[in-house]
Specification:
Number of domains: 2
Radius of gyration: 21 Å
CATH class of the largest domain: Alpha Beta
CATH topology of the largest domain: Mannitol-specific EII, Chain A
CATH superfamily of the largest domain: Mannitol-specific EII, Chain A
CATH architecture of the largest domain: 3-Layer(aba) Sandwich
Number of helices: 10
Oligomer: single chain
Order of helices and strands: HEHHEEEEEHHHEHEHHEHE
Shape: globular
Structural class: alpha/beta
């Protein structure tokens, strides 16, 4: 599902007035209610959904970003709103910083898979400095909505084929792990397998012959993560392009490596990516 399908232009405000989380939630509920999908839902119901989710853990995810969200029975689909605070909002974020960029969402429980994917998309979008800069400088909600639409349609096209591939991605920099998991979630690859891996140098200090070189072997990153999933051959380039948006050009040393293999035998239902 595209974010532009969940966010109406009327539900974007580039000048939030709230300074505290409690007031912010009320302001975001008012924006959400401008979507016709919430026409028959009371504001108190929407507010309760956001507050109930907030009790489990803060949705202030750091870097001045807040993503309050919740579930409401009977909705026809996912509804979202975007707000920007010029002064910052006291939010009890994980990094202690005030929140300036807010995306609020509500969804029906039965839309759990799409709900998860849109949440991941929002998190990735708000981690893009060029997008948060736009949120600050945009002259109108329409400008923000148009930018999201452009970003969602400008990606590498996917051509569906009859061939599946096994894709192996080795992530070498653990700092990107959270962002990679968000990306896998966004494209529907939540069934992918993730393995903690140690390269050979991580074991060399256990071999008596090489003990003299322990300092050399323990420098740098000895651990990594390996992601495995089945993927349609026609989606590989699009998938890789998304990974490189996060970790950079894989041709550069230390970024990671991707390999695909033919699937000679498959029994069961391979995961299906939906960009």
């Amino acid at each position: 599902m595209k974010l532009t399908e969940a966010v109406k232009v009327e539900s974007i405000d580039v000048n939030l007035r709230a300074r505290k989380k409690e007031d912010l939630f009320k302001e975001m509920v008012a924006l959400l209610k401008k979507n016709p999908a919430l026409e028959n839902v009371d504001e108190s119901t929407v507010l309760k959904a956001l507050n109930e989710r907030e009790k489990t853990a803060t949705t202030g995810v750091g870097k001045e970003v807040g993503i309050p969200h919740g579930k409401i029975m009977g909705l026809s689909g996912i509804v979202a709103a975007i707000g920007v605070s010029k002064r910052g909002i006291d939010y009890d974020s994980v990094d202690g910083l005030p929140v300036r960029f807010v995306v609020a969402m509500v969804a029906p429980p039965e839309e759990a898979r799409n709900y998860l994917r849109v949440l991941a998309k929002v998190a990735r979008l708000l981690s893009d400095p060029s997008f948060t800069e736009l949120l600050v400088t945009a002259s109108s909600p329409t400008e923000i909505h148009d930018r999201i639409s452009t970003m969602e349609t400008a990606a590498t096209p996917v051509t569906t084929t009859e061939e599946q591939r096994m894709l192996l991605f080795e992530l070498r920099d653990p700092d990107y792990f959270d962002a990679i998991v968000e990306y896998f979630t966004e494209v529907g690859a939540t069934s992918a397998t993730v393995l903690d891996a140690r390269n050979v140098q991580g074991f060399l200090t256990k071999v008596p012959l090489f003990l003299d070189f322990s300092r050399v072997f323990t420098e740098g990153q000895a651990f990594g993560h390996i992601f495995l999933l089945s993927i349609n051959k026609g989606a590989v380039e699009r998938f890789v392009a998304g990974l490189e948006e996060i970790v950079g050009d894989l041709a550069e040393e230390g970024r990671g490596i991707i390999v695909t293999f033919p699937l000679d035998y498959v029994k069961g239902m391979p995961s299906k990516l939906e960009f």
